[in-house]
Design a protein that fits this description.
Strand 1 and strand 2 form a beta hairpin. By secondary structure, this protein is mostly helical. The protein is globular. Helix content is 75%, strand content 1%. It contains 14 helices and two strands; from the N terminus they run H-H-H-E-E-H-H-H-H-H-H-H-H-H-H-H.
């Protein structure tokens, strides 16, 4: 099967997945409360309240409500986000997504680089002190709740040592001075503005939330990479490569690590979606103005339009991440066929 055909087929499979997710979440919004409650105030007259219900088709059966909502979604009308000053949900996503995506990407880079390196070293140095230390770190990473780690890091590096800020994306001085936001990705925008001091400030603000978000993923990648490496290092072709006199460094890098990356790639792909969706607690603790804080505010105020928009967005990201993982499979292992 050609790569283009495979990608088209996978993108078409996105449709039933999104329909299933949307039906599930939409149904939950209808059975757990009044979807119009967030848009009704005490000062509204009964006629105004009834007009809001009528505009949301709440007097119709649930499947009719879903149909109207689905048609609006396809047309780009995702409703109004009350928690973001009654801005359209699509505009709110465009406003908050860059901050979350930037945080997720930095966290992912940290997690992949550290996780693969630690997993490789741990497997090569099996039962040595560094292996034991790595396994303890990995166990801590999967056991420690993210909000506990965030509070510990804030207490040590902000409150006690004062090395990092408590939260936010940039310092107030840059907000007051202003700069041109080309992409809303501040690391990129700072370079496009030619302000290296702003780039350093953005990286300074990213450090703690990115480490917090990456810590659990580092542990998972490390454990998977270590077990995969141990399995690969026991294969006959590795023994053959070593018996031919190849340097151990070459055997590890060119033969063992590449094959061990295949199962690890699956974890990395799923972890990316998890990091994007799981930034809720991290963003709330570090006052990070991203999708996570926006979705929490929406949940607290029963802003169902925002909740549905956030859920659909995360579902799309998960499916696309899995598609990229499958493509990487074919690159890493030519024996894999896109069938």
């Amino acid at each position: 099967m050609k790569m283009r055909t495979y990608i088209i087929r996978r993108l078409l499979l996105l449709i039933p997945v999104l329909l299933g997710v949307s039906i599930l979440v939409f149904t939950l919004t209808r059975v757990t409360g009044n979807p119009a409650a967030a848009y009704i105030t005490e000062k509204m007259s009964p006629d105004a309240v009834e007009a809001i219900k009528e505009s949301m088709h709440l007097n119709d059966p649930v499947f009719v409500q879903y149909w109207y909502w689905l048609v609006n979604m396809v047309q780009g009308n995702w409703g109004i986000s009350k928690v973001n000053a009654n801005q359209p949900v699509t505009k709110s996503i465009a406003e908050f997504f860059p901050a979350t995506f930037e945080l997720t990407m930095v966290s992912m880079v940290i997690a992949v680089m550290v996780g693969i390196s630690l997993g490789t070293v741990s497997a090569v140095r099996r039962d040595k002190p560094i292996d034991h230390a790595t396994r303890i770190m990995a166990l801590s990473g999967v056991s420690l709740p993210v909000f506990v780690l965030a509070i510990i890091l804030q207490f040590i590096f902000y409150f006690h040592l004062g090395w990092f800020p408590s939260g936010g994306r940039i310092s107030n001085q840059y907000i007051l001075e202003g700069f041109t936001e080309y992409t809303n990705f501040y690391l990129i925008d700072s370079l496009l503005n030619g302000k290296l001091d702003l780039f350093a400030d953005v990286a300074w603000h990213l450090a703690l939330p990115a480490i917090t978000l990456a810590f659990g993923t580092i542990a998972i990648i490390t454990r998977m990479m270590r077990s995969s490496m141990l399995e690969v290092l026991g294969q006959d072709y590795i023994k053959t490569a070593r018996s031919k006199g190849l340097p151990d460094k070459t055997v590890i890098k060119k033969h063992a690590r590449r094959n061990a990356l295949i199962p690890t790639t699956t974890i990395i792909g799923l972890a990316f979606g998890g990091l994007l969706a799981g930034a809720v607690l991290t963003e709330s603790i570090f006052y990070w103005p991203g999708l996570g804080r926006w979705s929490v505010d929406a949940l607290l105020q029963n802003d169902w339009n925002s909740i549905l928009g956030f859920t659909i967005l995360i579902a799309i990201v998960y499916v696309l991440a899995n598609l990229i993982v499958d493509l990487l499979y074919a690159y890493l292992d030519p024996r894999v066929r896109l069938e």
